[in-house]
């Protein structure tokens, strides 16, 4: 009886081990085969803007390492939250991933009904690059420097228009910080990305736009806009002769954009690890490094190009911006 029981137990164990082997084997096979088709990299803003520029450079370089195309898909709307919600609900198989900026940290404080939680509904691939911003005016706006701009904004109050890429866009955040520093509200005009916002500024339909150097440097170099200052505490390499806003009296002004790549929660760890490797390899590509450098973007150190690097950073940024935005009582739709 005892012997019979032992034999039965042994065959059960063999069966279980066999099943586990099959399961592990097929999971390994699935991630070994990854990627077996093109990957969609979702960009939350319009084509031609700063997030799109970084995404296209990165996507091309990642595709070299992955041996599959990385196709950029622009999903616009609601300051980047439409795209983030889309990726949060996508199949967690690594074939739909998201690139986003500070908006991942700010949206929960700005939107009453956000359908995703940036800290719970994603797996993290890694950070990409940091980008400073510049405050620009349309070419014929009267002020010639930040001090004159502050006076002009105060004298003209809500007649001054400020373009942005929607509630939760970094252009909007920069505008909010500027209004807070100056103590005056301007009229915000939302677009679906910096691409269309910049077209409006160049066409003279709006007065101001604060945005990433990835889009603003070419316009500054061609003298198509007025440049009022860099948003970082120190001057930047790409614009050594342009003073910061802080230097010109907008004391303490500090704003920098960061980008991260995300996958839907539940993506197999082997797949996220493969994507992280491709991201790191992509950022080593000299063509990408040169392109980003020319646009004022700074590739983050390799320890930030990791899931833990992005997750830690997102937590810290959420803790920094969300209480501030709540005290600023920004209108939620
Ligand atoms: N720079 C944008 C923002 O203000 C969006 C974009 O990349 O087009 O968030």
UniProtKB/TrEMBL annotation:
Keyword line: Receptor, Signal
Signal peptide residue numbers: 1-29
InterPro entries xrefs: BUG (IPR005064), Bug_dom1 (IPR042100)
Pfam families the UniProt entry points to: TctC (PF03401)
Record-linked SUPFAM superfamilies: Periplasmic binding protein-like II
Family: Belongs to the UPF0065 (bug) family.
Protein name, UniProt field: Tripartite-type tricarboxylate transporter receptor subunit TctC
Record organism: Cupriavidus agavae
């Amino acid at each position: 009886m005892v012997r019979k029981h032992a034999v039965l137990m042994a065959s059960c164990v063999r069966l279980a081990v066999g099943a586990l082997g099959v399961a592990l084997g097929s999971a390994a096979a699935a991630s070994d085969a990854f990627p077996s088709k093109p990957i969609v990299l979702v960009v939350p803003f319009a084509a031609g803007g700063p997030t799109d520029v970084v995404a296209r450079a990165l996507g091309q370089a990642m595709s070299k390492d992955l041996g599959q195309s990385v196709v950029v898909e622009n999903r616009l709307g609601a300051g980047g939250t439409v795209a983030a919600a889309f990726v949060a609900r996508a199949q967690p198989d690594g074939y739909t991933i998201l690139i986003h900026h500070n908006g991942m940290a700010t949206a929960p404080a700005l939107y009453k009904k956000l359908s995703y939680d940036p800290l719970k509904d994603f797996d993290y691939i890694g950070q990409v690059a940091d980008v400073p911003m510049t405050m620009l005016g349309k070419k014929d706006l009267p002020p010639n420097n930040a001090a004159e701009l502050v006076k002009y904004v105060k004298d003209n109050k809500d007649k001054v228009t400020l373009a942005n890429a929607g509630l939760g866009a970094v252009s909007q955040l920069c505008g909010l910080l500027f209004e807070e520093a100056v103590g005056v509200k301007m009229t915000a005009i939302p677009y679906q990305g910096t691409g269309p916002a910049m077209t409006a500024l160049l066409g003279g339909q709006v007065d101001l736009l604060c945005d990433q150097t990835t889009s603003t440097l070419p316009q500054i170099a061609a003298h198509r806009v007025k440049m009022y200052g860099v948003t970082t505490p120190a001057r930047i390499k790409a614009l050594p002769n342009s003073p910061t806003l802080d230097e010109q009296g907008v004391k303490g002004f500090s704003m920098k954009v960061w980008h991260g790549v995300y996958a839907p929660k539940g993506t197999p760890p082997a797949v996220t690890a493969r994507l992280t490797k491709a991201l790191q390899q992509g950022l080593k590509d000299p063509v990408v490094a040169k392109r980003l450098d020319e646009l004022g973007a700074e590739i983050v150190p390799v320890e930030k190009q990791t899931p833990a690097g992005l997750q830690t950073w997102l937590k810290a940024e959420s803790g920094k911006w969300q209480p501030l935005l709540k005290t600023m009582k920004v209108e939620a739709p």
